[in-house]
Amino acid sequence: MRPDPIRVVLGVSGGIAAYKACELLRRFTESGHDVTVVPTAAALEFVGAPTWAALSGKPVATEVWADVHEVPHVRIGQSADLVVVAPATADLLAKAAHGLADDLLTNTLLTARCPVVLAPAMHTEMWEHPATRANVTTLRQRGVLVIEPAEGRLTGADTGKGRLPEPAEIFEICQEVLAGVSRSGDLAGRHVLVTAGGTREYLDPVRFLGNRSSGLQGYALARAAAARGADVTLVAANVALPDPAGVKVVRVESTAQLRDAVVAEAPSADAVVMAAAPADFRPVDVSDAKIKKAADGSAPTVALAQNPDILREISTERARPGAVIVGFAAETGDDTGTVLDLARAKLARKGCDLLVVNDVSGGAVFGSPDNEAVILGADGRVVEVPRGSKAALAHVIWDEVATRLQD
Ligand code: CTP
Predict the structure, then answer these.
(1) How many C-beta atoms lie closer than 10 Å to residue 118's C-beta?
(2) Which member of 14, 42, 155, 255 lies 3.0 to 4.6 Å from 307 by CB, making a disulfide possible if both were Cys?
(3) What are the phi and psi torsion angles at 75 (to 5°)?
(4) Mean pLDDT, the chain, as a whole number?
(5) H/E element holding 18?
(6) For 195-221, what is each residue's pLDDT tens digit?
(7) Distance between CA atoms of 137 and 157, rounded to whole angstroms?
(8) Which domains does the chain carry?
(9) What does the alpha-carbon distance between residue 276 and residue 253 come to, in Å, rounded to a whole number?
(10) What is the pTM of this model?
(11) Strand partners for 78
(12) Using a 6 Å CB cutoff, which residues line ligand 1?
């Protein structure tokens, strides 16, 4: 039996950005969500009811007086899994903050007990006005997720903060909120170990061999696991990001230090996700003093030694039987094979349970908030994860881990 679709209420208040909500609506319906659009009367001045009805496949009401026998002002909010208002005008924020309920959308906001996401859009002066600031603070204190508006061109010739974020961005945030709700607690009682960032191998006190890993994907994994109830240890190699809330962070620099930290935690970890990029080689000699330029213009020769392969080591040792071990593969295809051919070979070589494969031809993923990947299972399962936020990919990886965890 197919599970019931997720019920989303899309509130639209009266701003020029209402047209962008059409794109957001399409993203929800194309993902199989059941969407009820509740525009305000002012929103209908910008985009008419037929557009919302056609795109959502449902009739659209603005006031509480339509279909009164179905008590829509209570039912729509009560049965929603998520209410998102985009755009949310200054007026809508004020009404929501003060509990006013003079139309169907504001009634829905009062009856909803599910997560609420508001995506404000207004002129900079209105966003910065103390009244709006206070309303946003009140709403956030109540647990409403009020997204920061984007900066850029506003309705007229002016620019500044107040633009509605792109529909794709709002959609991702909503997916993340829904993911947190539906998966909350499924990793409770589990200890998971995540590595992130890129290691450094020093040549002398100031120079090192490093790589372009930003740590964003590893941090997203740690945050997602914590949100799902896991006890998370994050081994971070040279990452310049704030510590995720509720996560134990162990800082390392070199591959040897990363290995020691992972080997120390692996026996107690139900899952290990190796999202870090450990340097494969290190200089044989590390100079205590900064290496000087030679007077004759010659360059020094650096001899390299191979570093331990941590993923392979923990996959072979299996310090905790039944633990799920996940590797990452940043691949570019070459004349020996496609990205997936090389990744399948790597999965077998490393001996891990899951391999998350990124095609990095062109360097697209480094430092980017987005990622797309294919997750290969040693059991033959293949999950394609379309381009989306690193947070969304993190949740899919934990889904795959969770189904493989033993009781
Ligand atoms: N990895 C590791 N120890 C290393 C290098 C890599 O544990 N010394 C892990 C990474 O954290 C990642 C996976 O191995 O999860 C794949 O990394 P990648 O750099 O693609 O693999 P390589 O070992 O460099 O692959 P190859 O055998 O093709 O050189």
Answers:
(1) 23
(2) 255
(3) -65, -45
(4) 92
(5) helix 18-30
(6) 999 999 999 999 999 998 999 999 999
(7) 29
(8) 7-179 (3.40.50.1950), 191-404 (3.40.50.10300)
(9) 11
(10) 0.68
(11) none
(12) 255, 274, 276, 278, 280, 307, 309-311, 327-330, 346
